[in-house]
Amino acid sequence: MATAARDRRRVRITYRSWRGETSTRDLDPYGLVLHGGRWYVSGLDSRRAEIRVFRVDRVRSLRPAAHPRATEPPPGYDPAAQLASALGEVAGRHRVRVLLHTTLEQAARRIPPGAATLVQTAEGVLLETRAERFDTMACYLAGLGCPLTVHHPAELREALARLSDRLASSAASGGRDMGPVRGR
Question: How far apart are CA 41 and CA 129, in angstroms?
Answer without folding.
Answer: 21
